[in-house]
Amino acid sequence: xxxxxxxxxxxxxxxxxxxxxxxxxxxxxxxxxxxxxxxxxxxxxxxxxxxxxxxxxxxxxxxxxxxxxxxxxxxxxxxxxxxxxxxxxxxxxxxxxxxxxxxxxxxxxxxxxxxxxxxxxxxxxxxxxxxxxxxxxxxxxxxxxxxxxxxxxxxxxxxxxxxxxxxxxxxxxxxxxxxxxxxxxxxxxxxxxxxxxxxxxxxxxxxxxxxxxxxxxxxxxxxxxxxxxxxxxxxxxxxxxxxxxxxxxxxxxxxxxxxxxxxxxxxxxxxxxxxxxxxxxxxxxxxxxxxxx
Length: 293
Description:
Blueprint: E1 2-3, H1 14-22, E2 26-27, H2 36-52, H3 61-71, H4 77-80, H5 84-105, H6 107-116, H7 137-142, E3 158-161, E4 171-174, H8 176-193, E5 200-203, H9 212-222, E6 226-228, H10 235-245, E7 249-252, H11 254-265, E8 279-282, H12 289-292
Parallel strand pairs: 1-2, 5-6, 5-7, 7-8
Antiparallel strand pairs: 3-4
Helix pairs in contact: 5-6, 8-9
């Protein structure tokens, strides 16, 4: 169990922290001067209160509890609500399996692990991840194009690659299992944001060798939402389809989201009432705090 409180000073009181430990409760703020773990909870509760608490009257605790449970959605509840001990056990088992498979099937990893004096048998829990050597970007270039693949080519169903602006692109090969895991990860994120099968998700990330468009597309499809695969560019058509088809979620880079917003603002035929967007899913590039605001 995790306990969250706005009263950060309480976390410094020995009697308070002792009581939490005695009852096997994990505190969401760890120590003085470190609010990284707590900030995630602060952000969550801030959004929760804005979207389903402020301005709404609940007449009983049970009514409020039911509203909160309905608000908090999971795509894979069994995995996403797993207790910490079970999660660590699962992570350890999967890490050991993938290290063994990689060591046996990829010359690069086998050589790098041997140099570090690490064998697959040394990986027994998730804590042992610190024993594994790092891969550098240059390694991906040195073993271009298939030298780091851990599956035979007959099992590869898709390629993606970097832009290759500084040389040959870095190529990634995906098995069907990889694509399934990827789409589930995106589906979990979208569900956590509040997306449902009732939404129309406009994917304005680029499609092609770049992973953004197809990754968001497959995750949206997995939750049963309607996907509008506009890709990037052709802004006037993006806005027309956004209005006419009623997009409720926009997926794109933050810079393109700002450009779309400015274009809508300057479009005499479009008003905010025409736009049905509930929220946006932005990424794939760095963005400043000012841009976030």
